[in-house]
Amino acid sequence: MSKTKTSKLLLKYKNNLVEKILSRIPEKDFKDKSKVFFDPSIGSGQLVSAIEQKLIDCGNTIKDVSKRVIGLEDNNYDLNIAKHKNYLVGKYMKSTLFNMSKEVKNTLKDIDPKNIRTLTNPPYGGSKELHQRFYNEMCKIAGLVVTIQPATPYINKNKPRKHEAEMIDNI
């Protein structure tokens, strides 16, 4: 398969995945100005870019979008690439979910957690169980969480480990 064909297939897969994630959010939430969309791991910015576009498609102004989309990334280089490549207008900060900067805490403190919609493709840390920790932490701060997760904790026939049991409780 040629590089061009592979790139097109990969892009189609990523776009389908983003669409599936967005489809888990009720349409009315994109129109409700009290709802805030939070991605604690923006990576290349594909998901937050799609969230911003969906908000605009639902009648929100650029000013509305800039107040309703918040994202974190722990790497300045990735953060800058995501912001500039996607022409993002939301509030994006260098920080992590587990060690939030003062700026992030101040941004989130005045938002009712019931109005936070967290969508992310979390980092996977393998034996560090990073994606499970991400999910469990997001459940503490958001009214609705949509995330990509491996199926292992849900289909494992062994007794769930502590972090897996917490994930299952949060569903």
Could you provide a short overview of the structure?
By secondary structure, this protein is α/β, with parallel strands linked by helices.
Describe the structure in your own words:
With 171 residues, this protein is α/β, with parallel strands linked by helices. Helices cover 51% and strands 13% of the residues. It has nine helices and five strands, in the order H-H-E-H-H-E-H-E-H-E-H-E-H-H. It has helices spanning 3-23, 27-31, 46-57, 62-68, 76-85, 102-109, 130-141, 152-155, 162-170, and strands spanning 36-39, 69-73, 91-94, 116-120, 144-147. It has a five-stranded parallel β-sheet with strand order 3-2-1-4-5, sandwiched between helices. Strand 4 (116-120), helix 7 (130-141) and strand 5 form a beta-alpha-beta unit. Helix 1 (3-23) packs across helix 3 (46-57) and helix 7 (130-141) runs parallel beside helix 9. Mean pLDDT is 83; it is low at 4-11.
Topology:
Layout: H1 3-23, H2 27-31, E1 36-39, H3 46-57, H4 62-68, E2 69-73, H5 76-85, E3 91-94, H6 102-109, E4 116-120, H7 130-141, E5 144-147, H8 152-155, H9 162-170
Parallel strand pairs: 1-2, 1-4, 2-3, 4-5
Helix pairs in contact: 1-3, 7-9
Task: Note the main attributes of this structure.
single chain; 171 residues; alpha/beta; 5-stranded parallel β-sheet; 5 strands; 51% helix
